[in-house]
Design goal:
Layout: E1 11-16, H1 20-30, E2 34-38, E3 44-48, H2 51-54, H3 60-73, E4 80-85, E5 89-95, E6 102-107, H4 116-125, H5 132-137, H6 149-160, H7 177-186, H8 197-209, H9 220-242, H10 246-270
Antiparallel strand pairs: 1-3, 1-4, 2-3, 4-5, 5-6
Helix pairs in contact: 1-8, 3-10, 9-10
Amino acid sequence: MNATSGPRPAGALLLCRADPPTVRPPAQLLREPLLLAPAGDGWSVLVPEGKPWQDEGEPVERVVTGWATALAVSAAGWPVLALWWDADRAGITLAAGFRRTVGYTWLADGTPAGEDEAVRTLADRLALDPVLDVQALEPLTLADPEADSRTRLLGLVAVLTRTGLALPAGLDPGEAPDRLRAAALAAGAEQPEWPGWREAVRDELDVVEEGPLGPYVRGPRARLLGGVQLAAGVPLLLWGLGRRSGGWATAGALLVAHGALGLAYDRLRER
């Protein structure tokens, strides 16, 4: 008998392969009501309030894909895995830098509705074990009358625990956004405050400059990266605005802001 017990309210979690201090600056740039909490060794979790899909009627998948993309393109090399669900489906979206996002979807009753190759790509980009972890993920792509969509997401989280992921108690995929936020607050989550564009971008650039991607903040590589971000961000911003997609418009706006401010930062530091 299938484990599905009825429609669930839409919700999402954003799993970031980085510690909270590293995730905080790009999370601030989203300018969304998010809670940030540690989620194990080298992991953080962002818990959104969910207004775009609760009040504005946007599909949760499209919103969180935009957010994950925005975080990944502004991050210092760490990937973002979005877990999302609504009354009809559940799924995952992985964003890593400027590479094409990868996703997989299950129907509410747990029926797989994605490409097996996507799971293997996900394992590769998250640096999972190419044999043991991929074998553990494969059952998620097979029919199982006992597993609904929530069970599929929980199965994915169980595999990721091998990499150090440890979600705080109560932060379980499939729960309502209010319960997720309550659990995050109980675990000591913080709400990244918006400090203004200048401070937010400065904080993030400081984090990047101190890391292995420092050459992409100053010098020829930084100027090349800034130009690429502008070239990609302008059409993405216009597309998001035209489609009235807040998630993708945010991703485009962040790319434009990062490109312009990155070029300005490089010039100022040279002086």
